[in-house]
Structures are given as C-alpha cells and as structure tokens.
Amino acid sequence: MPKPKPNVRREDQRLIIGKGVFTDDVPLPGALHVAFVRSSMAHGKLLSVDVENACQVPGVVAVYSGADVAGLGVLSVNKILSQVREQPFPILAQGQVMAVGQPIVAVVAEAAKAALDASELVVIDVEEEQPELFNPSAGNAAAFEQWQQGDVDAAFANAAHIVRASIQHPRLAPSPMEPRAIAADFDDETDQLTIWLASQTPHRARTELARILDIEEENLRVIAPDVGGAFGMKASLYPEDVLVAWASVKLKRPVRWNATRSEDMLAATHGRGAFSRGELALDRNGKFLGLRAEIACPLGHWLPNSAIIPAWNAARILPGPYSIETAAISTKAFLTNTAPVGIYRGAGRPEAAMLMERLVEEAACCAGIDPVDIRLRNFVSANQMPHTGPTGTVLDSGDYAKAMDQLTGSKSYQMLIDACEDLRRAGKTAAVGIAAFVEPCGKGWESARVQVRADGHIVAMSGSSTQGQGRETAYATIVADVFEIPAEQVTVLCGDTETCPPGIGALASRSTAIGASAILQAARQAKEGSLSDVSVVYEAEGEAWGFGCYAALVTVDLETGQLQIEKMLCLDDAGTIVDPILVEGQLTGGIAQGLGEALLENIVYDDYGQLVTGSLSDYALPRAADMPEIDFLSMETPSPFNLLGAKGVGEAGTIGAPVAILNATYNALAQYGVDALNMPLTGEKIWRAINAAKNGKPGDEIQEK
Prior knowledge:
Layout: H1 12-16, E1 32-38, E2 44-50, H2 52-55, E3 60-64, E4 83-84, E5 96-97, E6 103-109, H3 112-119, E7 123-128, E8 141-149, H4 152-157, E9 161-168, E10 171-172, E11 181-187, E12 192-197, H5 202-213, E13 220-223, H6 239-251, E14 255-258, H7 261-267, E15 271-272, E16 275-282, E17 288-300, H8 309-316, E18 327-335, H9 349-367, H10 371-378, E19 387-388, E20 394-395, H11 400-408, H12 411-425, E21 429-440, E22 445-452, E23 458-462, H13 471-483, E24 490-494, H14 511-528, E25 533-539, E26 545-556, E27 563-573, H15 580-599, E28 629-635, H16 652-669, H17 683-694
Parallel strand pairs: 1-14, 12-13, 17-18, 23-24, 27-28
Antiparallel strand pairs: 1-6, 2-5, 2-7, 3-6, 4-8, 8-18, 9-16, 10-15, 11-12, 11-14, 16-17, 19-20, 21-26, 22-23, 22-25, 26-27
C-alpha cells in the first residue's frame, strides 16, 4: 500500500491537559474500597488469621480470607512450551504463604482509609520456612523445552575456535506511570457486571473473569479506559482483580482498588531475571559452525497467563539473525518464592540477543576479525529468506547485511567513531559497541470493524487496545488513507468488550502488524464493496520479524567506575512504517527502558526472600538526564506475512540498547583486563572490576542465582 501521511498524535492534547480518563477517574458513586493484607514472609505455613478487630472498624463492610474464595476457578496459562506443570492461582493465601506481598486477607470498606486502618488490625500467624529463590541448578522447573538440529558434537569437534558467554539479567520492575487499578460495578437487576481495568487485554480479561467467577460471558463487560503504560505488566489478571470483581458480585455494590507504587513493586509481575550461557563454534575464517545454549528463567510463586513466554522466546529466537544450522538449545523456567515474573517489554528478545551478541563479540576477538565483518559473514542472507532456524522459527524477510552496511556507512556512524577517537586523544577511556538483533511481532489473529456513516464520518473499531503507543493515530491514518479523507473524519474505538470486536490485545509488538492489517482489510472491503458496516477477523500468514543494528559510544571514569552513554545510533527495519513519528517515539521509550536495565535497574531479594528494593528510593529508574543523544536510521523491508507489510518495533530499544552498551563497555575496559561484568553496570561494579583486574583477581563473575 502507498505510505500514509503521518499525523500529529491525536491522543496527546487531552492527556497533556489532564482530560484523560484512567480507571481511578471513572465515577462510581457509592463504591466500596479494598485494602489487602499481605504476607511479610516469603514462605511458610499459614497457621491462623484473626480478623475480629478489623471487622469492628467503622465503615468496614466485609473481611475475606482464603476460605471465602476457595471455590473460584483458576487463571489459564499459555502452555507455549511442551512441558508445563499446572500451578495454583492463589486469589487469597490458603494454608501457606508463597512470597512476600502475597495477598492473605481483603478488607472491604466504605472508604479507602477505613479499609487501610482495618487491614492493620488483622493478625496473621505464619510458621516460616526456607524460601526457594532462583537457582538454575535446582530441580523445580515448572516448564522446559529443548531443540536440536544437526550433529552439534561434530561441529564443535571440528571448530578452530570455541567461545563462551554467560549472562545474568537483573530482575526488573516494569514501573508504568499508572499502577494497577480496577473498578467493578454489579447490577443486581440485570445480572450485569461491568469492569474498568487498566489492561492490555480487555477481551481476554473478560473471558478469564467469566470462567473464574463462573458467570456468563455475555453478562460481563470489560473496559480498558486510558491506560498509563503497561509494558507487559498489565497483560494478565491478578488475584486482586479477581477479588474485586467477586466482591462486587457478592456484595451487589460497586467496588474499586488502586495499587500503590510499593504494592506494584512487591506483588505485580517483574521482568527479566534470566540466566543464560552458551558456546559458539567457528572455523578459522570466522564462519559459525554450531551453537549450544541454555536459558533459565525465574517464574515466581504463581503464573500469569504469559509467564512462560520469556523462557520460550529467549530460546526459540536463537541464533537471532545468524545462519547457524547446527544447534542444541534448551530452556527452563523455575518456580520461586518471589513475586511473579511475566512478560516485560521485550519478553525474551533481549535475553536472546544479549547471549548471542556476547558470543559474537567473543568470536570476533578470538578469531581476530572485526566485529562488523564477522557479523556480515554470518548473517542470514536476503536470498535465504524466508529462513527456518534450528528451533523452527521462520524469519520472513530482510537484508541484514545491507542494513549493517547502511549503519556503518552512514555519516552518523563515522561521527560516532570520530567522537570516540577525540575522547581517547583527550585521555578518556572510550569505546564503541555494536549489536544486531531480530524482533518477532506476534502470531495469530485480530479483528476489526469499520462503519461508514451517512455524514461521511468513519468509525474504526479494533479488538486491540492501547496504553500510550498512539494506536488511535496510527489506525486513523490507515483508514483515512484508504478512503482518501482527512484523518479527522475517522474515529477509532478500542478497549471495550461491548463496543469493539474481540481481539487478543496489545502484546508482542503485534498491534500494527496484525491489528492494523485487520483495520486495513476492513477499510478496503468497506470502500471497495460500498458497504456501510464491515467486520473482519484477520489471520496473519506467519510471524513478521523486524531487524535492528545499534551502536553505542561510552566513556568510563576509571577513578569512580561511572559509565556514561555519550551517543547512540540505531537502525531498525520495521517493514512498512505507518507513521515515522510514532516509530521514533516507540524506539526512544524502548531505549530508555533498555538503558535502565543496562545501567540502573535491579530488583533485589535477600536470602530470606525479603524485597530489598521495595520503592523508588531503592530502585533506580532512568531520568531524562540519563538519556544520550540518539540518531535514528531506518530501512523498510515489507513483511510478506501480513497485509500491511509491517514488522515489530515497539520492543526494539529494549533489545538492542542494553547489549550495544554492554559490548561498548567491554571494549572500553578490555585494555585493563576486565572480562566479566553483570548488569546493571553501576559505577561500583565497574570500579570493583577494574581494581580486581589490576590486582590479578577474578572480576564480577556471572553467578547462577
């Protein structure tokens, strides 16, 4: 299709002036409020719960414990790996506590303050037991899978060089601006339950709630109003969501709950935390012969719907953009007495890229080949597309070598290299690092409906949802281009199960590639068939894969270990681009989060399962001042697997930025003998690594933890 003209983001004006309507803004007269009493221990037998004093607090309507919700159903889990053990879905703890922050008691009161005051009077007796923290060597894997192609042993036996790498990703808190929130209103006369939920997946939430609560799906409406960020954290139902919805039905009154920031740090899903290691075999010319890789991911004490996705993605994406036909790859996911771990922007993609790109860097060093050249020698070539990798994934299209040549041949790249040389001449410790990666953007279907009204106005309804990506702007642009009208004549609706068609939701960078293709198909049918109302269910022919190559320039202060990102250069091939302004916004946000993982962010538990980083006083997020100057380059290789030809870009920054920064840091410190670093790359860690290397001691060894 011809490239649509970019438009100013239509969402921005009302959000900037405070006219957005988030879940907490939804008026709900007479609503009750919920406060949760949470476990202060990571693991133990729940001996008793005394709620008598809490029940006496004025304004308290009900106090619930595990026995009250024992008969409710469980959350479904995407069993994307072949071996997944069933796990309980504890709405309120029953018999035992499994993590600090797990809800044990719910207090419902007329006012939020009364609920909170009463919650502090609940007395809980727990017999503490030793928690199981993340240990890849333990035997408590809840899910696992392995793939093998070719004679791996022979490939390694015939190799001229074998290189190894190990990576420990920090555990991250997604930290959207809006914490979790839900409001529920049950109408006793009609048996209708309406839910307002800060969610990426309103249609799935409706289906899950209907099954868990054992009510008819047609009697349940889920609305995702404005959502202040999500990043995967709002992709699944939480125990608190179920309790609020259940309480509204039971009490026949509206009920609402808004998480505090600390509650989200404690009990919302975390991301990353994976441990990986691999070996790469290559010949004397730098050709990759074989790959061995193992992935181990923490899960937490209960499984959100997409809990297994990071472990699956981190393994099945390997070997990334490289042509390696011989490989043995395995992945496992482990239960832990911690908060749950779910999908977080990237969801296994950064984990795959980090391991592969560190192996490639080691290979370049070992073989004495330029890091750019060794990548060019081993990329899947354009004439190999579509290319099936050793785990069965199919790379749909792209010219990775051309993209790398475009990056390294650009004026911006030369300026990056020149700036590095200038810094070195000035006595600074500086280096450039590069990285290449692929980004899958979801499979399956999405639906859309397009209505042409008598006055010429068009309403486009999507089964997808939005959390700040500019979805309304992009979809309006596509429809307006089809009908050759101003985008102002198009209204876009999404996020309401009553007014919008079913959909999977905003996950896995799928909403443009698949969701927008559904919108495009419906719009074309409405125009070509002169129809006033068209509904479609669009099924993508396969999975579209974006590609990117990034470069980062860093400096290191040897006296303090402080790492500074001076500049970044990014080239992304996201297929057909609907709106370059939206793409740049997505890339900038993703890079900010990738920079957070690389330099600052780290959820820490102590040996007793206590959360050490329970607030933003202890958990460091990137600020505007931490962001480097970024130059953006692009390529457009349309995907043959969806109608629009689009590929994913929403997670690209979280994939490419951390490993480019890590590679640059290794390059800067190589002259000092530093050969092992863990993210986040804090000044203390780097200082210790430098001084350990000077003294001939082991550096920051990668630990299995």
